[in-house]
Amino acid sequence: GSPLFLSLFFFFGRYYDQLCSIEPKFPFSENQVCVTFTWKDAFDKGSLFGGSFASGAFQHIKDTVLSSLNREPTVDISPDTVGTLSLIMLAQAQEVFFLKATRDKMKDGIIAKLANQAADYYGDAYKQCQYKDTLPKEVFPVLAAKHCIMQANAEYHQSILAKQQKKFGEEIGRLQHAADLVKTVASRYDEYINVKDLVDKINRALAAAKKDNDFIYHDRVPDLKDLESIGKASLVKSTPVVVPLSQKFTDLFEKMVPLQVQQSVSVYNQRKADLVNRLIAQMREATNLANGVLASLNLPAAIEDVSGDTVPQSILNKSKSVIEQGGIQTVDQLIKDLPELLQRNKEILDESLRLLDEEETTDNDLRTKFKERWQRTPSNELYKPLRAEGANYHNILNKAVQADGQVKERYQSHRDTIALLCKPEAELNAAIPSANPAKTLQGNEVVNVLRTLLANLDEVKKEREQLENDLKSVNFDMTSKFLTALAQDGAINEEAISVTELDRIYGSYTQKVQESLKKQEELLKNIQNAHQDFSKMKQSNNESNLREEVLKNLAVANDNFVELVANLKEGTKFYNELTEILLKFQNKCSDIVFARKTERDELLKDLQQSIAREPSAPSVPLPTYQTTAAGGSKPAASSTPTPAPRTMVGTKPQPPARPPPPVISAASSSSSTSAPSGTAVPPAAAPAPPAPTPGASAPAASTAPSQAQGPPYPTYPGYPGYCQMPMPMGYNPYMYGQYNLPYAPSPVYQNPGQAPYPAPQQPGYPFPQQPYYPQQ
């Protein structure tokens, strides 16, 4: 095809991939998301792609697309039409192979089979649409002509093969048939296809064959029905449409899913975190138990310390490991960094709540001043979800502070022993008391049994570390599962789907964890029994007991160092991730406060304009004896009633003052009571604004107050409530002996007080899953 067509094909292929990606994310139906796509007839003369499609695509339309239509399909994509078009595509593709074989001068027998197969495809397409008017009228003669042309080519090349086989009569019979076929095309379908060159080629070959046969071979020409049928060779088939069509497909809408799916994924992730954390906690507790048992038995140092005056190899290995990880300086630096990280998070949280407090105070002051005129949702009601979220963060930080204290206390109790492990071998050996054993136990059967059991236990712990890494690396996206369920059922049974998938994914891991725990239990029992036999064989004295106690403390110090470093690193990571969460919380607080300030300014402006439009206070009638002069004359009525005061707006918006009580003047009272009985009193004229006093400054212009720059916010009563931000899930980052951070999925809060803004509720912010601290 042309470069333009190929470019358009790849473009629309990528477009189709994106449509397939986004379709299951929306419940397209008449009672949910009702989107109607108008399909234009592809056979319209003005259509860009009239006639350009592929066989597999038509078959895909017939088998898949038509069942999804909620109305009658147009003629061009009706089942009969797309079936015919699919056959036409196959025939054209087969013809391409025929043309290539001809150009490459392949064997005539092969070319004949390719042409005969193309003729069959064209014939099948013609039969399928022969008595239907679903296709343009020029399609039928073209299909008939193509069928005849391909059949003629097959006969022509088969005649060449017959000549090569010395079958001169068969050669003439096939050429005569080919000549009849092209003659039919030339007489009936010349308007659509020009076959002059093919006619000339076949006629020349037929004339030469007849001449040779008449003068030389005299071979009998068989009837057409007696000719052996030509074989067929199909090199094409309908390729199924596999989404995505693009080789390098990138889902542009990967993160966009319906709210129901997003909530289901969030709950699934919580279930997954709980399951994985529980399995990892079981393995780590088992490992800590094994280390504690070995340390209490002074193993493996006890069976290595047969000389009594050198450092056991296991202690040297632990010392080397601690030094390679930075030793005591690493722990000191990690502990030093924690208060700074904690203070940063506290400052962000305090600033977020300060924004809410400041705006709420302003709202309360204005509500007190304007009373019932201040018609918007109170800030203290609107901020309840955010304040609950802030209180949750306060609790998290308080628990983190307690965990920091426990880690520091534990470190101080083991610091000296850890520092001893960091010493060079000579200093370490000098610090360990020496003891001369009563007898040599090297090579004893009990020692060999203990070595074997300890080696097996080490193997179990290594397998457990690999199993923990495998558990952490499992990643399965449930979005497609929930999208499929929503599209099929219109609802998501999250619990049933999640439990089934978790059992399928993690069932084998759960079984391996239980097997590991059971195997360790048996090994520890055998180790304790063997150690009892070993202890009976050793001679006990004060020096040996003191030496064994020091070696035990060094082994325990190594275990504590590994765990302290892991806990402190986990704590550092926790504070850093909490900083990101609190910054998002601060942005939410800042956004809603900005919107409330904008709303407040608009409301103040409306109140000022409303007060300015209020009519002046009416005159209060007074008794006649107070308004009638001694001579019986009536004073003139006041022509300039006192207007209601205006509230001026400067650079900083101030709430307007309430209007003063009406001013009662004698003149106006007289005017109001002197009207004759039975006469209607005309209403007072609209008051004119008072003239400015000479020398007085002009009042400030009644303009809208200056506002902070930012995105425009709609003016409406109240502000949509925010969803509470979910807390990090999984492990309490580094609290010793505690593995789960209490967390429950946050509910979606409704806007308190008033009807919510018509926009959809915002979902809770997604938060990164807390990784699990590594086991050293």
Automatic annotation (TrEMBL):
<feature type="compositionally biased region" description="Low complexity">
    <location>
        <begin position="694"/>
        <end position="710"/>
    </location>
</feature>
<feature type="compositionally biased region" description="Low complexity">
    <location>
        <begin position="633"/>
        <end position="647"/>
    </location>
</feature>
<dbReference type="InterPro" id="IPR038499">
    <property type="entry name" value="BRO1_sf"/>
</dbReference>
<feature type="compositionally biased region" description="Low complexity">
    <location>
        <begin position="664"/>
        <end position="683"/>
    </location>
</feature>
<dbReference type="InterPro" id="IPR025304">
    <property type="entry name" value="ALIX_V_dom"/>
</dbReference>
<feature type="compositionally biased region" description="Pro residues">
    <location>
        <begin position="755"/>
        <end position="776"/>
    </location>
</feature>
<dbReference type="InterPro" id="IPR004328">
    <property type="entry name" value="BRO1_dom"/>
</dbReference>
<keyword id="KW-0175">Coiled coil</keyword>
<dbReference type="Pfam" id="PF13949">
    <property type="entry name" value="ALIX_LYPXL_bnd"/>
</dbReference>
<feature type="region of interest" description="Disordered">
    <location>
        <begin position="610"/>
        <end position="712"/>
    </location>
</feature>
<feature type="compositionally biased region" description="Pro residues">
    <location>
        <begin position="653"/>
        <end position="663"/>
    </location>
</feature>
<protein>
    <recommendedName>
        <fullName>BRO1 domain-containing protein</fullName>
    </recommendedName>
</protein>
<feature type="compositionally biased region" description="Pro residues">
    <location>
        <begin position="684"/>
        <end position="693"/>
    </location>
</feature>
<dbReference type="GO" id="GO:0000281">
    <property type="term" value="P:mitotic cytokinesis"/>
</dbReference>
<feature type="region of interest" description="Disordered">
    <location>
        <begin position="745"/>
        <end position="776"/>
    </location>
</feature>
<feature type="domain" description="BRO1">
    <location>
        <begin position="54"/>
        <end position="290"/>
    </location>
</feature>
<feature type="coiled-coil region">
    <location>
        <begin position="510"/>
        <end position="537"/>
    </location>
</feature>
<feature type="coiled-coil region">
    <location>
        <begin position="450"/>
        <end position="477"/>
    </location>
</feature>
<dbReference type="Pfam" id="PF03097">
    <property type="entry name" value="BRO1"/>
</dbReference>
<dbReference type="GO" id="GO:0005768">
    <property type="term" value="C:endosome"/>
</dbReference>
